[in-house]
Amino acid sequence: MQSNPLMYIIFDCLLETSNWKIHTLANHLSQNNFLGKLDNEYNKDLFKKNFLIMNALFQLNEDLIGTQYIVIIETLEIRLININENQISKPNKNLKDYYLDWANFETNSEAIESLLNTFWQNYSTYDVKNTYSPEKISSALQFFQLPESATATQISKRWKTLALKHHPDKPNGDKDVFQQLQIHWQVLKTTLN
User: Fold this and answer.
1) Which domains does the chain have, with CATH numbers?
2) Does residue 10 surpass a pLDDT of 90?
């Protein structure tokens, strides 16, 4: 398998900020000159950048086997977590197989258009409330020290209080606690809608 040069650059990004969206990661890589223009056609350029990032993520996950880390790669979110956090979701084998096959990098314009249309159709019907198990939601509420019956207002208020208290820019802030808060907030904010 051809090694992806973005693999360790992305790992460094994930160590710095554990939660990313694919488009924010792509923007970050582009702005820091790690990912340039790959095609003159807009959709093909977008597709190739996405392909390189997803390929790097799946290669990185393979490389992390036997370490304390795993990368959770979902449709709309990428997270680096410690395996012992018990937050592992089942990998999407079809997605992994697709992005580890370099033959897909040179996909034609019509196929890319079809993939983009399918993505946006799936995205518009994406039910974020069902992306996290009740156990993950319960664990996040416990981390926030909130009861199972907490309201959206209580959850939002607690997030703001804890984020302000533990933010790394604060004199007594704690980067590790803040990162854990962000992970649990990602779970809890899906319950607010």
Assistant:
1) 7-126 (no CATH), 134-189 (1.10.287.110)
2) yes
